Structure formats: C-alpha cells, structure tokens
C-alpha cells in the first residue's frame, strides 16, 4: 500500500510553510544592507572607531595631556625591544599623538551622537506636527526652518560660539540650534504623504486622537528615512566640530580634539607632517565610513531602490 506524499511543514498557526513565509520588511532591508559589502565594511569601521572611543582609557598608551619638551616633534618610532613608545610621534608640546587620536575619537563621536540624537528628536516631533496638523502650525514651523536654512551653517555656528563662548556644552547647543531643521523637513514631507493613506483614515474613523495617530500610526512608518538622514548628518556634525575646534571655538585644551590637533600641526607641516596629517586622516576615514554606510542604509531601507 503506497504511503501518502509528505506534506510540507506548516507554521503552528496553520499559515504558510516556514520556507515560504514572506520576509518582513526589516529583515529584507537588513539582508540588503549585509549584501552590500562596501557599506557593511564601512559600518564595521564605524564600530571600530566607537570601540576605540569607549575603550580609550584602556588602550591609550600614554596620558594625552602629558607633555615633555624633550620629546618635541619626535617622529613616529617604535622601540626595538618591543615596548610601547611613541608610535605615531609627538606634537610640538611633546604629547603622544596616538593617545590624543584615541581620545579625540571619543570627543568627535560623542558630540556627533548627542547632537544627532537631540536634533532628530526635535526635528521629528516638529515635522510630525507641521505635516499632520497643517494650518498655522505648519506655516510657523516651515517659516522658521526656511529662516534657519538661509544662514550658512558654519557662519551661523561661528556666530553662536562667539556669543556663548567655546566649550563642549556650547558647541553642542550651537550645532543643535540649526541641525534639527534637516530631520524636520524629511519628516514633514513623509507625514504629508502618510496622512492620506488608508491606515491613517482608519485610525481617524476609530476616533483616535491626533497625538495617537502621529506617534503610534505615522511615526513608526517613517522612521527609516529619519534613520538614514541622521546617519548621513552625523558625518557633517563631525566635520563641523572639527572646523570649530580648528578655529579655536570648539573643545578647549587640554581635551584632545581632531580639529585642534590639525590646527596645532599646521605650523609644522614641513618639519613634522605627522602632527596635522594623522588627525586629518582620522577625520577623513570616519566621515567617509559614515557617508558610505548611510548610502547603504538608504539603498536598503528605500523599497524603490531595492526593487
């Protein structure tokens, strides 16, 4: 007597077989991102920078503020006996450049994360209000955004820093003051498109409040572009912080900053190229990695580009 043909295993709830179950949009986006080797490599490099920043006190070979004029402009060297020396050389005050690069990564990434977190939160809430409520709310927020965008970012930040004075907290405030408008514009446009969709109309028909619709219905569906914009803008924030520190308006000594390190070495480019070149390469590597990773995120989370 012939045996019945085996049937494919089905899900516990009687749905499709596990192998035929449709992939969730999040899993599809992550799979697309992992398949992009260039963007995945950039994300790994960003993770390396983040680990260096977190573990700075453990992996820095010297105190970044410890100077000795006897080591002034010492070139990169490694002791023959294998002990720690000044692998990337010393600056004009005899401070270890490698240790200052490690601690400088902590400053740049910390400022970038804090500014982007605050700006994305403010911009997302403002964009939701402008896009969904419309009317006078949309007019006021849009005019404020247009006004802030009319000022060149660096000039605007320099003016604020000149009024508030240099320092870590002030540079964060100066950058947040304008940075939120970029997330706001993206969220407003996405909200204008989403508020006419069926699921929003259904929520209105059920009597949901406007706050519920904005925060529980629309927001989860527009987080992908917010994530992409925030990642891309973080690279710009790092450049802005380095620019302000280069001009002496950012993080103040003895706290090491990549921008101030470049400024310290600009007078010694011919005799000690490593003082300014190495922190410049660090800025280039981190900003390039963030830009490449953000491009991969955009390709992965935009269904029109995934095909």
Present the secondary structure layout.
Layout: H1 25-35, H2 37-54, H3 56-59, H4 97-133, H5 135-149, H6 153-164, H7 168-194, H8 198-205, H9 210-218, H10 223-246, H11 258-265, H12 274-301, H13 303-306
Rounded mean pLDDT score:
84
The proportion of residues forming helix, as a percent range, comes to 55-70%
Structural class: mainly alpha
What's the end-to-end separation, in Å? Answer: 49 Å
Shape: elongated
SSE series: HHHHHHHHHHHHH
Major beta sheet summary: none
Rg, rounded, reads 25 Å
Number of helices: 13
Number of strand segments: 0
- Which regions have little confidence, pLDDT < 50, spanning 5+ residues? 7-14
Percentage of β-strand residues: under 5%
Tell me briefly what this model is.
This protein has 307 residues and is an all-alpha fold. The protein has helices at 25-35, 37-54, 56-59, 97-133, 135-149, 153-164, 168-194, 198-205, 210-218, 223-246, 258-265, 274-301, 303-306.
Can you describe this structure?
- The chain has 307 residues and is mainly α.
- Helix content is 67%, strand content 0%.
- It has helices at 25-35, 37-54, 56-59, 97-133, 135-149, 153-164, 168-194, 198-205, 210-218, 223-246, 258-265, 274-301, 303-306.
- The longest helix has 37 residues, at 97-133.
